[in-house]
């Protein structure tokens, strides 16, 4: 194969080499552009210094951890552009299930408008950055940020280059108005900006401490953990929902993860599906039982959270046309639907000092956040990035738990699980080849380091 003058026998290597050459070219191209337009960039800097130019952030309907990553990255971009921040309330429809009510009242006996009310974020930023500072004739201007992959593919990864790119766009606006201006940053497409966030301290170093905001909110509206005083907190998150595999009453297995190649097809076994990211609930149970058995029984108070299979069943019935089943089979599936979660997670009741939270209602989400942020140890799989993002936002190295990431033998890279200084806290565990006693040693060493740190 010949690409850009390179003759390479390995096609995948050829593509990699070609991408590297394109990236080098793109970086060089934009550096030349910014150099040639340095006069216009200086003109922007001068104008923004003498005008009232504000910015706000209006996010898409992503989950709240994606939104918080977006918020941090865009806030840092706006600050680097020398714009003054005005707060627009954050709202995540995906993290607020209006249609679901808790089976039990939250142990804080408080109700929250949404996840941002629980986190205390909107209250904090509204007090700091009120819209009342805007003049009556302020001009509103939408600015649509492209996906972070757009910038990364063009070598515009650093904050200095990215702001230079945006300055050239905003200069036209500043030149044509003497009024106050409010730039509304919006996203052109769905992007968590997690790649940009992890790429540089310029993006993830944040002047507002979300951890302190959260702790202040819990002082006002407490939420208990109900852990044994002498134990350490072990938090387990088993993502299922629309990424899960359902075992049929007729002993077949169906993946409902719509964007995956093998979804909505029947397989004779879980393993036959062959997806690198998906682990069975029984795999989590087996690993957790091994870990608890290999450590002191009094070491942990364990909480297990899962969204369960309700959404998986909704996805399956929504895509009936993709599965060629008789009406009798659909009726058979309906008969197991209501009790499926209970059966799938029944084994966990065999483990001591363990609390199980299954479902997607709002109170469970708040409990999940609170337990995750107060955990000493975390167990997750690779079906989700929610917990790594949450920990990246709310933890520094002194607060970061040890995170055991369960993978199969084919999934090896954890580079996208956190910013660089937190990556040593993520430990990959191959569920097909691990030694419980080795894990117990890692856990005990981490406990000792934390005790030493506190002293």
Q: Major beta sheet, specifics?
A: 6 strands, parallel
Structural class: alpha/beta
Number of helices: 17
CATH architecture grouping of the largest domain: 3-Layer(aba) Sandwich
CATH class of the largest domain: Alpha Beta
What amount of the residues lies in strands? 15-25%
Number of domain modules: 2
**Rg estimate, integer Å:** 25 Å
What is the average of the pLDDT values?
Answer: 85
Poorly predicted runs of 5 or more residues: 1-15, 98-109
Range of helix content: 40-55%
CATH fold annotation of the largest domain = Rossmann fold
Walk me through what this model shows.
- This protein has helices spanning 11-36, 38-50, 64-80, 115-119, 121-128, 148-153, 159-175, 194-199, 201-204, 210-220, 281-294, 310-318, 327-337, 340-344, 362-373, 386-394, 436-454, and strands at residues 2-3, 6-7, 53-57, 84-85, 139-146, 181-188, 232-238, 245-247, 253-255, 266-267, 300-306, 354-358, 377-380, 402-407, 426-430.
- The chain has 455 residues and is α/β, with parallel strands linked by helices.
- It folds into two domains: 37-220, no CATH class; 232-454, Rossmann fold (3-Layer(aba) Sandwich), CATH 3.40.50.
- The strands form four sheets. A six-stranded parallel β-sheet has the order 12-11-7-13-14-15, with helices on both faces.
- The N and C termini lie far apart (60 Å).
- The relative contact order is 0.11.
- Residues 1-15 and 98-109 have low confidence and may be disordered.
Structural features:
alpha/beta, disordered N terminus, 4-stranded parallel sheet, Rossmann fold, 2 domains, 17 helices, 455 residues, single chain
